[in-house]
Design goal:
single chain, mainly alpha, 6 helices, 65% helix
Length: 163
């Protein structure tokens, strides 16, 4: 198995992702939030490849198997993060950026919980989990920097969550 084939997440491409459509007056290369988004996305690509390799090693013996169910949950969480990064950088509204950021955090945490469960059950290797956790910690550091670039605006959150 070629590990590079497991990472089908496309490389960052401003043209493909329509980065910054909401504010086309901003030069991408001079916008720290978008530069951090690129770094965050690229770090997620690294996590993505590691997690794909991890999940591919989980059993797949039928829909009723616990390893297969855990694998499906890992994939579900894994596949949500990249689109949420792209969604957050394509809007200018603080509330929408924060909603995407909250979804990223939730899915990354749930994915790590499922990976930890797979290791606890003996279906996967602890060392592989640690490698993924290290990559997630790097992602987390970039995430914190990225979220700090979000500018609060006058739009209200009608749910009262991001005020």
């Amino acid at each position: 198995m070629n590990l590079s084939e497991l990472n089908f997440l496309p490389e960052w491409d401003e043209g493909r992702f329509k980065v910054g459509q909401a504010d086309s007056s901003t030069d991408f290369n001079n916008d720290s939030g978008k530069l951090l988004a690129r770094a965050l996305y690229n770090q997620w690509r690294e996590v993505f490849g590691l997690v794909m390799a991890f999940a591919e090693n989980l059993a797949d013996d039928g829909d009723q198997s616990l390893p297969a169910s855990t694998k499906a949950l890992i994939y579900e969480n894994l596949l949500i993060v990249a689109p949420k990064i792209m969604g957050a950088i394509s809007v200018d509204h603080y509330v929408l950026k924060m909603e995407n950021a909250a979804n990223i955090r939730t899915n990354a945490k749930q994915m790590m919980e499922q990976i930890g469960f797979a290791v606890l059950m003996g279906w996967a290797d602890e060392l592989h989990r640690q490698v993924i956790e290290n990559a997630i910690n790097q992602f987390k550091q970039l995430f914190k920097q990225w979220v700090s670039t979000f500018k609060k605006d006058s739009n209200e959150d009608d749910w009262g969550l991001f005020i």
